Amino acid sequence: MKSEQSVWYIILIACAAGMAGFLYGFDTAVISGAITFLQDLYDLTPAMEGIIISSVMVGGVIGVGISGFLSDRLGRKKILMVSGIIFAISALWSALAGSVLSLILARFLGGLGIGFASALSVTYIAECAPPHIRGRLGSMYQLFTIIGISATFYINLAVANAGSYQWGLETGWRWMLGYGVIPGVLFFLILIFIPESPRFLVKNDRTSEALQTLQRINGQDTAQKELNSIQASIDMETSTSIRELLKPGLRKAMLLGIFLALFNQVIGMNAVTYYGPTIFNMMGFENNTEFLATSLIGTVQVIFTVVAIFLIDKAGRKKLMAVGSSLMAIFMVLIGIVFYFEIQGIWGLLSIMGFTAAFCISMGPIPWIMIPEIFPNYLRAKAVGISTMFLWGANFSIGQFTPMLINNVGGAFTFWMFAVICAICYIFVMTIVPETKNKSLEEIETIWKPEKRYISY
Question: Name one Pfam family in it (predicted).
Fold first, then answer.
């Protein structure tokens, strides 16, 4: 019987792996609600506040640093399943934490699980997706991240309104953190039903299994061609050492992956995500309207991430990042003006909404798509892990130093600093980033061959 392509099967495996983004989004957003109560409960300094929030990033750096090595030995699917279990345990521990130290350790453990998942999810999707829709399917990670952020903002709002402030101080924040058990367990259970990455299977001499998966993804005729291409790519390589990434050609790919990872974080979106209620409170929102304003930002994120899914494979990665980074710079300038002149009310909210929309069609989803695209099969998991380590390191810096910056130099200069970074991002995109739209992973691999002196943009 001839095997035909199953679109629903492709969507299923992309959504299952992409749900790792929900874990990342939940953890990113939930602390913004809990920290409001933790500040008063433990009389936190800005530095300690940053440590609680950024402890998850320390675990994330370690998680992504070893995820590539573990997944090359054990498989993408198994390590993703382990990450779900770790996240669920972390959420339960966070809810039951009896001290600041216990909470920091619990969040560190959660970061380890998210670190595993964040690198491997996008790697897995890139290795399974057909070239013509790889951008859309790769966006699943970012879409689930944004859905996780938005849903968690509304959970925080509901918990904050469920009782008095004293109840929130004693119990409410525990419920916020404890809800993370649910997505962690669901992620683990859903992964049972998806296959292993076909490129991992070929690399480990499980060719017949790889062909079966590729047939369901691409149809029989295309599957055989894809299998031959994967096999040829793997046969050409003699070393899987990360030192290969320092050689001419691949060195450029490695630098591009690192810069994409850094700009995903340092442009300032997570400053809003982590400290949304605090920022809106400084803009004059109070009586839980700061939680409502933060929830509206989450809704904007979902809407424009969906828009990005339909644009990425049509407009292209490079064009969207250029447009988005320039708009983000403009809106960051406006947010700084709101702080500088102490403008209260709707203008600050609208400016942050505009910045969020620009981020979600550009530097939000696209780095997660391009980073696994640009590396060859035999080094992809390790290279994505290294790139994502820089992403998590930048994430740590944003979580740790944003409250200190706002406290020491003020909101205006903090957001103007982000505006400058967005402008630098625009220059980087226009001068260095290649277009990878509609290219197979093996075609993209040829861009970095040492003999290639020029890149077609």
Answer: Sugar_tr
- Phi and psi angles of residue 437, each rounded to the nearest 5 degrees, phi first: -60, 135
Whether 123 and 381 have beta carbons less than 8 Å apart is answered as yes
Rg of the Cα atoms in the chain: 22
Q: d(Cα 264, Cα 266) in Å, to the nearest integer?
A: 6
Q: Which of 64, 40, 58, 43 is nearest to 258 (CA)?
A: 64
**What size, in residues, is the chain?**
457
Could you read off the pLDDT of 444-453 as tens digits, one per residue?
877 776 544 4
Both tokens of 78, joined, read 């198994």
* Integer angstrom CA distances of residue 444 from 135, 136, 198, 455: 14, 17, 18, 11
Reported as a single tens digit per residue, the pLDDT across 173-222 is 999 999 999 999 999 999 998 899 888 898 888 899 999 988 888 777 78
Distance CA 127, CA 76 (A): 10
Q: Which of 197, 145, 182 is nearest to 302 (CA)?
A: 145
State how far the Cα of 252 lies from the Cα of 247, in Å rounded to an integer.
9
Ordered alpha helix ranges (H), 75-180: 76-96, 100-128, 134-160, 165-167, 173-178
CB 280 within 8 A of CB 335: no
pTM: 0.76
Question: Who's near 90: CB < 8 A, 6+ residues apart?
Answer: 106, 107, 109, 110, 113, 180, 184
Q: Which residues contact 185 (CB under 8 A, 6 or more apart)?
A: 84, 88
Exposure string for 410-422, b = 16+ CB within 10 A, e = fewer: ebbebbbbbbebb
Give the integer Cα–Cα distance in Å for 237 and 401. Answer: 43
Q: Quick one: which of 331, 329, 358 has its CA closest to 426?
A: 329
The residue type at 381: A
